[in-house]
Every structure is written in C-alpha cells, then in structure tokens.
Amino acid sequence: MCGAPEQTQELPAGTDLNKHTVLAGRVFSAGEPVVGAFVRLLDGTGEFTAEVVSSASGDFRFFTTPGSWTVRALHHSGNGETAVTADRPGLYPVEVSVI
After folding, report:
1. Separation between Cα atoms, residue 11 and residue 8, nearest integer Å
2. Would you say the pTM of this structure is higher than 0.85?
C-alpha cells in the first residue's frame, strides 16, 4: 500500500504557503481526468524524487522546496510531463496531459 496521503486539490489544515512549496494539479487525457496515473517528481537534474498515484479526479500533490522540477505522469493510456519553476514558497498549479 502506498504511504502517500490521499491526493486532493485541498491542502491539509495548517499548510502555511509562506513556508511550504506545494506543486498540485491534475492529470488529464483528452480533457478527462486520468485515474491511477503514476505521477513522478523529478528534480532539476532529472533525478527521481517522489511518486504518488493520481486520485479518482486525477489530482496529485507534492510538498517540495523551491527550484526547477519536472512532473511526469505515466499511465497505460499514455505519458506526459510538465516543467515547473517554483521560485519561492507557495502553491504552484500543474496540469499534465498524457497522450
């Protein structure tokens, strides 16, 4: 069983966006949410950092540090990735389209 918390767009109570850097978003294919995609977080050098599984509504979330990141989604219906630059703490919305 995955140890990651339930993946939703709603942040946990007590999340201080002045201190935390959060990458949160959805995985889509043809405009529809992708359920059960493996969503990977890669650092600025392309190294694997973390992985979660997208929720029933395609949601995912990573708590990280400021920097350059790639969010990659892998699913039997396709793969996709999006580059994200988080230059300071805050919430960074991310959409990943798989094709």
Report:
1. 7
2. yes
Q: Would you say how long the chain is, in residues? A: 99
Over the stretch 26-75, which tens digit does the pLDDT of each residue have? 999 999 999 999 999 999 999 999 999 999 999 999 999 999 999 999 99
Find the largest Cα–Cα distance for the chain: 37
Residue type, 51: E
Task: Classify strands 48-53 and 38-42 as parallel, antiparallel or unpaired.
Answer: antiparallel
Instruction: Give the burial class of 78: count Cβ atoms within 10 A of its Cβ; 0-12 exposed, 13-18 middle, 19 or more buried.
Output: middle
Which residue ranges form the domains of the chain, and what is each CATH number? 21-97 (2.60.40.1120)
Q: Which helix (H) or strand (E) holds 59?
A: strand 59-64
C-alpha 28: how far from chain center: 12
